Amino acid sequence: MAAERDSQAAASRSAAASATAPAPIDRAKVEVRRSARRSRTVSAYREGDRTIVLIPARMSHSEEQRWVAQMLDKLAAQESRRMLGDDALEAKARELSRAYLGGRAVPGNVRWVTNQNTRWGSCTPSERTIRLSHRLQGMPEYVIDYVLLHELAHLLVPDHGPRFWALLDGYPRTERARGYLEGVASAARLPHVPGQGSDCGAD
């Protein structure tokens, strides 16, 4: 009986881990780009649902395979560390509010949702709730931080007017994050460009 309970507990732990683990990188969607300007460095990043690996042009095929495998493992580890639960996401939002909005934007609830496929985030100022699309999971940390700040700013200013954008002036990666999201939206042919919607949210 004890062995059976241990087996069930292990299965439950495994299921819980699987539920929170990031989706594995699809190696069929890996694009290797060679550059003559690169002498030794190798880098990788996500571009929509693809993974881009940048390598020196002179690299041999065997070296390419070895480095691609290493960079995919590194990306997967980074994305795993970036995965935030709802509680951690709310703590991150409060931290960003203190750092960039003087602590004035105080969310009541912040959580991931899976039903936002055309918007990156949304908020309901009257309820002080913020929701982030699960599609952001695995994107660079500065992008997630930007979307959180975008929604936090909506707790103070509901529209996308000059007062709203002035609130984001203190975040140094606003334009970079917007460019990243616009690129992802364009690649996925989404109907909305981030930050251009008429309703409240980074759509």
UniProtKB/TrEMBL annotation:
Pfam families: YgjP-like
Chain intervals for the UniProt region annotation (Disordered): 1-41
Domain YgjP-like metallopeptidase: 113-179
Biased segments, Low complexity type: 8-25
Source taxon at top rank: Bacteria
InterPro entries: UTP_pyrophosphatase-like (IPR053136), YgjP-like_metallopeptidase (IPR002725)
Listed name of the protein: M48 family metallopeptidase
Origin species: Kitasatospora terrestris
